[in-house]
Amino acid sequence: MLNLNRELVQCIKDNHLENDLLKGKFGIEKENIRINNNGELVKTPHSKHFGDKLLNPYITTDFSESQVEMITPVCNSIDEAYNYLETIQNVVSVTIDNEFLWPESVPPILPNENEIPLARYNTNEKLVKNNANMYRKYLADKYGRKKQLISGIHLNFSLDDDFINKLYNSSLSQLSYREYKDEMYMKIMRNITRLSWFIIKMFGSSPVIHETYYDSCNLENLKIDKFKNTISIRNGRCGYKNINNFYVPLNSLENYITSIREMIDSGKLIGSKEYYSVIRPKSNKGNLSAIEKHGIDYLELRLLDINPLFKLGVNISDLYLIHLLIILALILEDSEMNESLFYESINNNQVVAEKGRMDNLKINWKGKRVDVKSMSLHIMDTIEEVVNIIDPPIETYKNIIATYRDMVIDNKNLYSSIIYEQIKQKGFIEFHIKKAIDYAKDSLSKRFNFIGYEDMELSTQILILDAIKRGVKVEILDRNDNFIMLSAKDKVEYVKQATKTSKDNYSTVLIMENKLVTKKILESSGLKAPLGEEFTKIDLAQKEYYRYNNKNIVIKPNSTNFGIGITIFKESFTEDEYKTALDLAFQQDDTILIEEFIEGKEYRVLVIDNKVAGVLLRVPANVKGDGTSSIKQLVMEKNKNILRGQNYRKPLEKIKLGIPEKMFLTQQKLDFDSVIEKNRIVYLRENSNISTGGDSIDYTDVISDSLKEIAVKASKAVGASIVGVDLMTKDITGEATDNYSIIELNFNPAIHIHCYPYKGKNRKIGEKILDLLNL
Amino acid sequence: MLNLNRELVQCIKDNHLENDLLKGKFGIEKENIRINNNGELVKTPHSKHFGDKLLNPYITTDFSESQVEMITPVCNSIDEAYNYLETIQNVVSVTIDNEFLWPESVPPILPNENEIPLARYNTNEKLVKNNANMYRKYLADKYGRKKQLISGIHLNFSLDDDFINKLYNSSLSQLSYREYKDEMYMKIMRNITRLSWFIIKMFGSSPVIHETYYDSCNLENLKIDKFKNTISIRNGRCGYKNINNFYVPLNSLENYITSIREMIDSGKLIGSKEYYSVIRPKSNKGNLSAIEKHGIDYLELRLLDINPLFKLGVNISDLYLIHLLIILALILEDSEMNESLFYESINNNQVVAEKGRMDNLKINWKGKRVDVKSMSLHIMDTIEEVVNIIDPPIETYKNIIATYRDMVIDNKNLYSSIIYEQIKQKGFIEFHIKKAIDYAKDSLSKRFNFIGYEDMELSTQILILDAIKRGVKVEILDRNDNFIMLSAKDKVEYVKQATKTSKDNYSTVLIMENKLVTKKILESSGLKAPLGEEFTKIDLAQKEYYRYNNKNIVIKPNSTNFGIGITIFKESFTEDEYKTALDLAFQQDDTILIEEFIEGKEYRVLVIDNKVAGVLLRVPANVKGDGTSSIKQLVMEKNKNILRGQNYRKPLEKIKLGIPEKMFLTQQKLDFDSVIEKNRIVYLRENSNISTGGDSIDYTDVISDSLKEIAVKASKAVGASIVGVDLMTKDITGEATDNYSIIELNFNPAIHIHCYPYKGKNRKIGEKILDLLNL
């Protein structure tokens, strides 16, 4: 009954466009009601961290103040859009703190109708604000506030422009390019409308409703069994729909627009966006008039429920299948969609939404009764045919067919069935709350990740997350280089590796890059930097005895291993002792360093805009004994911390139990099986790098004001906007006199260490950088 | 008669200070009269390129507007100071254009007394200006303008502070540190004063005088033979001296100061600087009062003539010998210097200056008559003793002894004898003019070099020279890194590699550093950048046929050799042709590039401060036939150009006759011995790099305004202050439409290529950068 257009398929093959069929742009929009941990809608305001809701392109509200709307940017693949949605949801979830996202299309426990808060607008642009407020008032009066809370997922998609162009050029069409393109999209709309009952059947996931919603649907108290065949309340008569079913012709864009215009003119609709069809044409440039003027840029598929079985309300493979359905809709034989076929599809949707899990259910197909199951299998077969034509390089598209065929074969495999069974077992609210909390936990564990871009530096990921949170637009210019563009209103900033920004001038960076020059400038500003010299020839180093013999110095190989080859002279020393120390160092490396010896610990003081933004001490990988556990056990326990990961994907690294750790323990006469007495700290590494399992300890609230001033003075000396000052001191809380030394200035300091330390507070460095950039 | 202080020598040895004896700070000041090519003093003003003469620390005027004074900064070695002097002299010589520096202490052809222009001051600070003008008026009236024109060389030197400190600490001196140090310098002054006749004998080099000077010395017309024993007119009675010989005690700093004060108070001197002694104490902080308050910082040795035999007026080995004399003066047995011994030394100086080349000349030494030659040999022996104590690592100090002993043994070897003989042969004016012109030519050939720092990048050297010219202070922070500090008044700028400055912000540089990001930004600004892609796997490249098959492309290995492996497709091409081209490219390299093919030549457009500062075309190494010469001969002829050098020491490289050149000629069926017909241009290289002998051709005055605008627009797109825009175009003079492409933006463009092109004007880029930096 479904036949592919063989001519079109041949044309695609002739032009080698099979792969281009899969290309396109994708975007996802999703609404979630905010709830408390009892499953009740909360009436708190939209978080101020999300900035102005009219300007934030990622996070805003929909009808209600309690209804967060998340919007991905336009993406080049489904994966990218899906990952972006997860990122946005993680940001929202972590920010709303003590509240949760209700993981379902139909509402949670609701208060009375008039207690449901409408979205509030506080923009300075009065007209915008009044329109936004008035529109919500209109909807509340017309449909009721409870109904308006029904939430869903919209998928936006467009075909690849190059693909349409090539197809157009090799067609014999008499149409203009724009007409040709519009017609392609209208064809997709017709076929998707015809197949929409299948989408509802497969992905519908709102089979049950809470009793506080009954009144908006004229329902009495019901037993759960009443819902045993329901698939999607949202897509049925109790869902959020136009009060009357309008016929809007899909045979041409012109007729479509005229028809909607007439309904607006006759007062049936306040605007085109009040027409709640399963799929909508869209323009990048505005509303109906823009479509009329410039044509269709993309389509919006509107009938996906929020599926509580998945954190994001939809499984990614569901989106793949829908993508294949869209391609199917494009390359199917076209057939006219008249008024009766239009209403046929609307009725089919309602039947499937409300009774879709009944065995032997029938719907109408071009006026004939057909079995839903047989028809569904036929659709799956045709999709498989499409997959074979495309021969997609992305394996996933092939692999999902079997899964969805299983759903078709047995209604028990449908999402709606699984949800229904779980609600029956656990209760409507309990089931959903458990899911909401689990998803929030998952978000928390990924709160430093820009999903899908975990290969980028954590510092950059954190900056991106903070940008998304406040609605600063992010564009990745070069992923490998961690190079991003940030924009808000008319302002554009280019940032590399989170801390390389336009706020630092080039010569400042070059100064910091050159240790010799840095030291000269620090010293000329009256700051203490340790003396130091590099030697590659032992005879030259030997001659310098008389320069060093009255100083505290450390002689060390350029690269060090377990302290071998290092000699520290704290008092005066003989020339023989000096020469022996040089021999030892040169045995380890061709290059040795003689440096002024400074006692103390090395703190990283992050200075942004001449203010101390964070102070951190890095401590070598270590465990604390409990009197019963072995070092191995203590390490494994410590590694469970969600901040610890591998390969720099998380703020801290797991402590390894490898050869360097074993050797370092051996030096202490310990091994991995040694049991450590209570409260004794054992170090597994000499170096304090985070990358080898070290701990980061926040000292921001502890450092003395005068040492803070030293760090700020160093920043000013080189004219830096963002700088990591490595400060050596014996007493971080003490007055700065001669008891410190500046080891190095880092022009590209990591920020994640200050945001997610092992011990201490999140110093919100991403936000401080955005503030610095005036974004 | 000269005995070293054995105790002091022992103390130096005990403290391992032998090498430290040679350490210290050095500075040179030199005056030269400006002349025309007839040997006449010119009355033109001091060049405006030298900025405000009261602020330029390197180049100013002395008594007369026609008398350039060159001042090196404080240097850490004699070599450094000597090189600095050469650099300054080169800058001056090239800038004064059509004028020359008179290479002699006694003046050139002079006009009448009252036609000699006094130095003019145009500073805004009225008091400073009035004082400077009044002082010169006073001197003109008191000594006469002609006498004031007598020029010389002053050597400033100080001992190493660490050295003095260590010596003081191991001495049993009852003095304070400051007294101890002052006394060390006073001792040097006493001994140098006593030995100054020897310095005049050895280095005096003004044996003859021009007749236009006679009147200021009450001389009649003289035969040249009258000067046959003269060594230094300048240091004799005809030189520029105080009208009366004052006795100024040197036994203590206190007495010295008191004595000078008395002469000022009695009106004999207008200030301490009018006391023209052979050596003077100096303070870094000001005049006599500063010395009184803070002690002596350094000494100024004032009796060196300008030696016409050397470009800089002094041979560097002369300075080494003087340095040894200073050390000798320090470690000699001290002896009282009373009034009679003081006058004895003044008389000795006069005798030696006026009759120093007489055989068997005698002078007084502590009241006794001694033979000058024997005494000179004794001094040389004692100097050798000093050298043996120091055992200097700088070989030069050892090697010069023999040379100067030869001078002592035979008066014919004295500089003054050599000069006298040459003047006798060629004439006073002719001899000196020839020298002046030769030295000017030498300066011209080194006009892009910061002498002694030729290992630094030419661009940095040029910037430094331009800074010196206008009086911007230069400090080298890291020589290897070409990192310098420029300062003027209270402003400090750090510059690396000439074009990396504070005027560019870091993200601008990072954008340019990343070709991918640069292209994105150029394209979003509506500028044309060629499409391009890199492939490391042939199968991935093969799949892209349908992306490229309707474009002009070039397929090439990442690194190219003689064009092997490069295929250019200008019209449509088949998939087979495409795959063959990929194979060819992959045979040469693991990485290949597919790029949009742009026809034309690649121009470097240097944009500074959003204005086009220079446009350059680089042309591969080539020669132009003359119908008779072989390629080898043509290359050798072309390589004679002073702009061509080796290893990047000069703006252009010599064309090589190596294997690559040979192979490239073979491809053209030519070899090194081929004779080329007249006006035929033969290329010896495929690539147009300057580093392989390419030519640089200036197009700054030729490029069309609209292509200029394109370059400026590219600069603005990335927000650059200094950028090298590599612009590909078929028609540099044409309107910019689609006929160009921006290949790359360089954030560190070389500047020397625009200053010293093979053909075209010096675009003075160093000056433009200084202007950009507001220096």
TrEMBL record, chains A, B:
Q: What is its EC number?
A: 6.3.2.2, 6.3.2.3
Q: Which cofactor does it need?
A: Mn(2+); Mg(2+)
Report which reactions are catalysed by this protein. Answer: L-cysteine + L-glutamate + ATP = gamma-L-glutamyl-L-cysteine + ADP + phosphate + H(+); gamma-L-glutamyl-L-cysteine + glycine + ATP = glutathione + ADP + phosphate + H(+)
Q: Name one Pfam family in it.
A: ATP-grasp_6
- CC terms in the record's Gene Ontology section: cytosol
Keyword flag Acyltransferase? no
- The enzyme class is ligase
* SUPFAM superfamilies xref list: Glutamine synthetase/guanido kinase (SSF55931), Glutathione synthetase ATP-binding domain-like (SSF56059)
Q: Where is the ATP-grasp domain?
A: 519-774
Q: Which NCBIfam families match?
A: glu_cys_lig_rel, PRK02471.1
User: What is the similarity comment for this entry?
Assistant: In the N-terminal section; belongs to the glutamate--cysteine ligase type 1 family. Type 2 subfamily.
Question: What is this protein's record name?
Answer: Glutathione biosynthesis bifunctional protein GshAB
The organism named in the record is Vallitalea longa
Q: What would be the name of the gene that encodes this protein? A: gshAB
